[in-house]
Write a structure and sequence with these properties.
8-stranded parallel β-barrel, 22 helices, 25 strands
């Protein structure tokens, strides 16, 4: 063994020694299988040795700065590769554009091989080690991640753990009656056990994909399918499933991925007579994944997709001593933000921000206004009831508002998964269309357009003030509106989420440098906000953050302080001008207008206006 090989092995052994006992204890608690654990450790070592030298160097550097992602310099953007630039080579050619957006974190939406027309947007993976041919190859992915790293851009991808496509090699063998592979899923000859599951397990899509099981007439069995019939749930009670999925995880990490988003993580452990959600074994699995990544590829972050209320989200951080996910989505605040837009009342939003501000500073959230998915109105209706909002009526109001039917709304969009029985529905639309850009443009109403742009920028400014990492959805940087052409595509027409998944309009992006265009106004406004965020130290995750009551339900005030520096953000969620008495004891500088603000000044916030005030001295 060479000197370098000994050094490499010593690094691995040190990391393994740190985690071995806990990892083995948790593994044996779940599986009680020594030989499978030994195989797991052997393969963790193999993937570590196969990891590229540049990635190992990155790991070592990040180990010396474990809080590297908790600073104020990350700004994310998520996009579908084909919609953004055609394929992976196209994305590589657009990296300079991403840099012009100040983006240094890109989330590549699902790109692994999946069946056309039966993929749920790529979330039904048929091969975890192949790229969809239309998007490129694994070699293209590696070239793209290398190019991103050279420009200081971090790459995130989805790892779909809960299920595979019915076209996956395992599923095909299971369907053919191979017992080894049937045991990797949940197969039942009759509906007796599935019926028992159905008594306690909620339905994910009760209107478009009712139930949690699908009958396979050719196989003569039922199979568990929590999401869609073509997505077969994996059986993590089988250690072979866990091991093989970990090997896929490490294989993808070795392609140069910096952040791996664990899709649908609360669902991955199934147990009869439970809701099959958020079970203790899920946390055991995520904790083991965290330790395994810290052994083989410690530069890689785990992002958990937990689309649930805050008390069910926070446990996925684990504890400070035994962490699980590095980052989680701030889902509830996103939905409450749009509730606030529709009602012009900040009470619930302020309450939720206060809860988030009280959490340990080690917890990092990804904050966003819109993403690839619909908006579900899973709000805190106990609090809203005290404010006079009844759940069913309020959900109807929100959906009517954002369709443009109620509340003097300027929004445009469509419903998703509407249930005529319960009256429940989710909402789809781009940020710009929800803010009124689409309506104002259609009506050629200049004053309405200015108000829509102010609302758009105010919401982004408020989102940037939250603790964590802000993430844009591709097209939001130029105010891209809803794309109704999805209705012309038979494979997409039934899914209204494609209304906000339209192709990037590069012809409009060319207007980003023109301050007289909608695109230019939004682009330059976001550029200013991102520059402020990256310049001011109060935006680090370790800052103290709190809200202030301004005595006006439509106004929100967020304060950030760090090492003697202080920044106050004021946000007007109404369309009417508001006056705020500035009662601080010293002078402040408005970072947007660059004007000095003195104690006793009456701040004038236009409708949907905002300001960032920095303490001088």
């Amino acid at each position: 063994m060479t000197k370098q090989e000994k050094k490499t092995e010593a690094v691995f052994q040190k990391r393994l020694d740190r985690h071995h006992d806990e990892l083995r204890w948790l593994y044996m608690e779940l599986y009680g299988n020594d030989s499978m654990f030994a195989e797991l450790c052997e393969n963790i070592n193999r993937f570590y040795l196969e990891r590229a030298k540049s990635l190992k160097e990155m790991d070592l550097e990040r180990e010396t700065r474990p809080d590297w992602y908790k600073q104020n310099d990350l700004l994310g953007m998520m996009f579908y590769i084909d919609n953004f630039a055609g394929n992976m080579k196209g994305v590589e050619q657009k990296l300079s554009y991403l840099q012009s957006c100040n983006v240094n974190y890109v989330h590549l939406m699902p790109f692994l091989e999946s069946p056309k027309g039966r993929s749920d947007g790529g979330y039904a993976v048929s091969d975890f080690r192949s790229v969809q041919p239309a998007l490129g190859s694994m070699e293209d992915l590696e070239r793209l991640t290398q190019a991103c790293h050279k420009k200081g851009i971090h790459v995130c991808m989805d790892f779909v753990m809960n299920h595979t496509s019915e076209d996956h090699e395992w599923a095909k063998k299971a369907r053919a009656g191979d017992g080894e592979y049937m045991s990797r899923y949940f197969f039942f000859q009759d509906f007796t056990i599935p019926a028992a599951y159905e008594k306690t397990v909620p339905q994910v899509f009760p209107t478009t994909a009712p139930g949690n099981f699908t009958w396979l007439s050719d196989a003569g069995h039922y199979v568990m399918t929590s999401f869609y019939p073509y997505q077969w749930d994996l059986n993590y009670q089988n250690p072979r499933v866990f091991n093989e999925m970990i090997y896929n995880f490490l294989y993808l990490a070795n392609r140069g991925i910096d952040i791996i988003r664990i899709d649908a993580v609360p669902y991955i452990w199934k147990q009869l007579n439970t809701q099959c959600r958020n079970l203790p074994q899920v946390h055991t699995i995520v904790r083991m994944m965290r330790m395994i990544s810290e052994i083989a590829c410690p530069g890689v972050l785990l992002l958990g997709e937990v689309v649930m209320e805050p008390e069910k989200v926070v446990p996925y951080f684990g504890t400070v001593e035994k962490p699980e996910c590095h980052m989680l989505y701030n889902v509830t605040t996103m939905a409450t933000t749009w509730h606030t837009v529709a009602t012009r009342t900040t009470g619930l939003l302020k309450k939720q921000l206060d809860v988030l501000c009280s959490l340990p500073k080690e917890y990092v959230f990804l904050n966003y206004l819109r993403c690839h998915d619909d908006i579900g109105w899973g709000l805190d209706y106990a609090t809203l009831k005290a404010e006079g909002f009844e759940e069913r009526l309020h959900k109807k109001y929100l959906n009517d508002y954002f369709q443009g039917y109620a509340g003097e709304s300027n929004s445009r969009g469509e419903l998703y998964n509407a249930d005529p029985v319960s009256g429940d529905a989710r909402f789809c639309g781009t940020t710009a269309s929800m803010c009124g850009v689409e309506k104002a443009g259609f009506e050629q109403n200049d004053s309405a357009m200015e108000a829509a742009i102010r609302l758009d920028l105010m919401l982004h400014a408020y989102m940037f003030m939250q603790s964590g990492i802000p993430v844009l959805y591709s097209g939001d940087e130029i105010g891209q509106v809803n794309d109704y052409t999805y209705k012309e595509n038979p494979e997409k027409a039934a899914d209204s989420r494609y209304i906000h998944r339209g192709a990037m309009h590069w012809n409009l992006a060319e207007n980003s440098a023109n301050p007289h265009t909608v695109e230019g106004k939004i682009f330059s406004g976001l550029a200013k906000l991102s520059k402020i965020r990256k310049t001011e130290r109060v935006f680090v995750c370790g800052a103290d953050v709190w809200t202030k009551d301004l005595g006006d339900a439509s106004l929100l005030c967020i304060v950030r302080a760090f090492e003697g520096e202080k920044l106050i953000g004021y946000f007007n969620f109404s369309e009417f001008e508001k006056s705020v008495s500035f009662e601080e004891e010293t002078d402040y500088l408005d970072l947007i207008s660059e004007k000095e603000i003195h104690p006793g000044t009456a701040l004038q916030l236009p409708g949907y206006g905002f300001c960032y005030l920095k303490k001088k001295g």
